[in-house]
Amino acid sequence: MENINLYNLLHATYDDKRVKDGRVTSQSTPEDTLVLQLQDQQGEVVGTIYANVADRYPDSLLYTLYQGYGTVELEQWHYDFSEDDTYETGARNIVDECMNGLKDFGLIRGGGNA
Questions:
Q1: What distance in Å separates the CA atoms of residue 32 and residue 39, rounded to the nearest whole number?
Q2: Which residue, 42, 45, 64, 70, is the most exposed by fewest CB within 10 angstroms?
Q3: Helix locations, the chain, DSSP H
Q4: What pLDDT band is residue 113 in, cutting at 50, 70 and 90?
């Protein structure tokens, strides 16, 4: 994949039951930002992902995991889409990483896999 389209990435999360809500916004930063709210098994928001396409690297996504609705930053990662040919694979891997991060911080039980 040469250029990440945040709207296509958002669409790839629609069937993931761990994602409660998602949107693309430009309110937080000048460039578009993908915002995904992650939920636990009870449907409570436990984390929020903010993701942007990296400057000068249009096939890389920089994303930050926050606790709850975005109050406390927990961890930052990047994801290289250069070898992925589907948004679904990348979206699943990113949500897995964040759910496992929430588990490591003791904010949810169980694994991060769908």
A1: 23
A2: 42
A3: 6-11, 87-104
A4: low
